[in-house]
Write a structure and sequence with these properties.
CATH class: Mainly Alpha
CATH topology: Growth Hormone, Chain: A
Low-confidence stretches: none
Order of helices and strands: HHHHHHHHHHHHH
Radius of gyration: 19 Å
Distance between the termini: 17 Å
Number of strands: 0
CATH superfamily: MFS general substrate transporter like domains
Strand content: under 5%
CATH architecture: Up-down Bundle
Mean pLDDT: 86
Largest sheet: none
Length: about 325
């Protein structure tokens, strides 16, 4: 029997929004620090790419585990532990030049961000279903707001001369504050019935939707992980301001997602997915093909606008399908 703590309540909705804000903020706070890691450790682009794979591998390994645990134990403590792991690893990423520490910290950081991202989407599907109204784009809009605030705040602190360590401590303080506010409304108890498996290979429409989400996440990851490096090395922008690439991306994504629930009620989902994908592709062409930093920022803005509502539409489709439980 599914045992959730009033998923339609105002408290559950507020906590869901705050948790989306947390995962967006924590992921984006890392982006402006990447050029500092590259310079501090003397990494080439190839070596940096290998290092960044650690973040992705941590997320890939942790997300199915987190989804399975959410099915058994609910969302609250998984999100709390994952947030704590992000807070513990961020200072290492901001200060260490010892590669084994960076590899381990980045993998744990990726696992923490990925776990929050996975589990809060489980909660979002349950809350949206319980409320019986379109909410997913609004939830993801808060993710984008968090990303925008994270990029702007960390870039601003670095621009004013604060060290990466000082910026990371600022992020940690905000994560503890917002995490404490979110915790009471996060769901406890099982999010699945007792006879469901803890893990199953995706199949049918779930597999197709998963592949589509993966493509969008690749585009988002390119903006998060590589925009600052591209602006530094290929566009020769001062390192203090290379977070502007992510800011451009996150700004348009935030606007698009905050308008998303209104758009979803008026435009068919397939039109939003197709049109958004084409717009994001155009943005990527501008980023890769025009060696002018202002055009690069425009390209990242188009990528953000295009990707804005693709994943929320697909996640809502996951909530409506009956092939697999949402936590798997």
């Amino acid at each position: 029997m599914i045992d959730n703590s009033r998923p339609a309540s105002a408290l559950a909705q507020r906590s869901t929004r705050l948790a989306f804000l947390i995962v967006g903020f924590s992921g984006a706070a890392w982006a402006p620090l990447i050029p500092y890691v590259k310079l501090r450790c003397g990494l080439t682009d190839a070596h940096l790419g290998l290092l960044l794979l650690c973040l992705g591998m941590g997320s890939i390994i942790a997300m199915p585990v987190a989804g399975s645990l959410a099915g058994r134990f609910g969302c609250r403590w998984i999100i709390a532990i994952a947030t704590l792991s992000v807070c513990c690893t961020l200072p290492v990423l901001a200060s260490s030049d010892f590669m084994p520490f960076l590899v381990a910290a980045l993998a744990i950081f990726g696992a923490g961000v990925g776990s929050i991202d996975c589990v809060i989407n489980v909660q979002a599907v349950i809350v949206e279903r319980a409320c019986q109204k379109t909410m997913m784009s609004g939830f993801h809009g808060l993710f984008s707001v968090g990303g925008l605030l994270g990029a702007i705040s960390v870039s601003g602190l670095l621009g004013f001369g604060f060290s990466p360590m000082q910026a990371s401590l600022f992020v940690i303080a905000l994560l503890f504050l917002s995490g404490g506010l979110a915790l009471p409304g996060l769901l406890t108890g099982r999010t699945s019935s007792g006879d469901e498996p803890s893990f199953a290979m995706p199949h049918g429409i779930v597999l197709a939707i998963g592949i589509m989400c993966c493509i969008v996440f690749l585009a988002e990851g390119a903006a998060i992980d590589w925009s600052a490096v591209l602006l530094t090395t290929a566009r020769h922008v001062n390192m203090r301001y290379t977070g502007l690439g992510y800011v451009a991306f996150a700004s348009t994504m935030t606007i698009g997602r905050l308008l998303g629930d209104w758009l979803v009620r008026r435009i068919p989902g397939r039109v939003l997915v197709t049109g958004g994908s084409l717009l994001a592709a155009l943005g990527m062409l501008l980023v890769a093909g025009v060696p002018v930093w202002q055009i690069t920022l425009l390209g990242y803005a188009l990528v953000g606008a295009g990707c804005a509502n693709v994943v929320p539409v697909l996640y809502s489709a996951i909530g409506r399908q009956a092939f697999m439980p949402e936590h798997l």
